[in-house]
Amino acid sequence: MYNCFSNNNIINNISIEDRGLQYGDGLFETIAIRKGKLRLWEYHLSRLKKGCKILSLKIPSDDFLKKSIINTYHDSELNHSPAIAKIIITAGKGKRGYGRKKNTISSELFSIFPATQVDPINYKNGVELTLCKTRLAVNSITAGLKTLNRLEQVLAKIELEGTHFFEGLTMDPENNIICGTMSNIFFIKENKIYTPCLKKCGVRGVMRRHLLFCLNKLDFLVRIQPIKAGDMQYFDEAFIVNSQFGLLPVKKCDDIKWSTFKRTRKIMSLMASNNIIECSI
Amino acid sequence: MYNCFSNNNIINNISIEDRGLQYGDGLFETIAIRKGKLRLWEYHLSRLKKGCKILSLKIPSDDFLKKSIINTYHDSELNHSPAIAKIIITAGKGKRGYGRKKNTISSELFSIFPATQVDPINYKNGVELTLCKTRLAVNSITAGLKTLNRLEQVLAKIELEGTHFFEGLTMDPENNIICGTMSNIFFIKENKIYTPCLKKCGVRGVMRRHLLFCLNKLDFLVRIQPIKAGDMQYFDEAFIVNSQFGLLPVKKCDDIKWSTFKRTRKIMSLMASNNIIECSI
Question: Does A99 contact B21 at a Cβ distance shorter than 8 Å?
Answer without folding.
Answer: no
